[in-house]
Amino acid sequence: ETVLTQSPGTLSLSPGEGATLSCRASQSVGTYVAWYQHKRGQAPRLLIYDASSRATGIPARFSGSGSGTEFTLTISSLETEDFAVYYCQQRINWPPTFGQGTKVDIK
Amino acid sequence: QVRLVESGGGLVKPGGSLRLSCAASGFTFSDYYMSWLRQPPGKGLEWVSNIDDAGYSYNIKYADSVKGRFTISRDNTKNSLFLQMDNLRAEDTAVYYCARQFNWNYFDSWGQGTLVIVSS
Q1: Which of A84, B30, B41, B84 has fewest C-beta within 10 Å?
Q2: Between chain A and chain B, how many beta carbons pairs sit less than 8 Å apart?
Q3: In this predicted structure, what is the pLDDT of residue B68?
Q4: Which residues of A are less than 8 Å from B105 in CB distance?
Q5: Among residues A85, A74, A86, A72, which one has the least CA distance to residue A31?
Q6: With b meaning 16 or more CB within 10 Å and e meaning fewer, what string describes B30-41?
Q7: Which residues of A touch B106 (CB under 8 A)?
Q8: Any CB–CB contact under 8 A between B61 and chain A?
Q9: At B14, is the pLDDT very low, low, confident or very high (cuts 50, 70, 90)?
Q10: 3-state secondary structure of B91
Q11: Nearest to B97 by CA among A36, A82, A59
């Protein structure tokens, strides 16, 4: 199966700062990568699909890029509600797999 | 709006069984593939099983870790998704989520999850 490795494990930042999260795949996944935001006790939320397409209702401060094996989620200016765990996921190789997550917490 | 509500979790002994349910509303349930995913304590998300929009058995898939022990099904007349979990193991302990599939194997709506604990 395709292993997704996310870095860093934790990102400590202040509101208003930018965040860059990375996801590396063990084999090419084209541009078939999604990013999810997950807060404790809540349903995960789809942010980005197909590497760079924002899901319905997702603010423009969230953007995604990458192809092949290297992907990035960028949050341009952190809002208080953005502090959460973020997961990448690939869908092109069976089974669909997730990275282990990057926690973005308040510095 | 889209709503998915899981139920049926709880504490069960190793080797035991549980049946999870997911009640869907706010969309045409019979138009969508659906999945179960899980998150063990302190770990990341793991896809468990999916089923096509009509529930055809040849279009049902399972993760290797649950194949032969878990059975996914759906009732489109009741807008409900199910996961029958048999021969449970300690490593099945997790929060279980149902999710609507989008654009093949992305997941665009999730429930809040139901906790399954397998322990003696």
Answers
A1: B41
A2: 57
A3: 97
A4: 91, 96
A5: A72
A6: eebbbbbbbbee
A7: 34, 46, 49, 89, 91
A8: yes
A9: very high
A10: helix
A11: A36
> Average of pLDDT values for A86-96?
96
Among A39-43, A72-76, B85-89, B95-99, the minimum mean pLDDT is found in A39-43
**Interface list for B 74-103 with A (CB within 8 A):** 97, 99, 102-103
Please give the mean pLDDT across all residues of chain A: 96
CB of B104 within 8 Å of any CB in chain A?
A: yes
Identify residue B105 by its one-letter amino acid code.
N
d(Cα A27, Cα A30) in Å, to the nearest integer? Answer: 9
Amino acid sitting at position A100? Q
Omega before A96 cis (within 30°)?
Answer: no
Q: Supply φ then ψ for residue A26, to 5 degrees.
A: -75, -15
Instruction: Tell me if chain A has a CB within 8 Å of the CB of B63.
Output: yes
Cβ B110 vs Cβ B16: under 8 Å: no
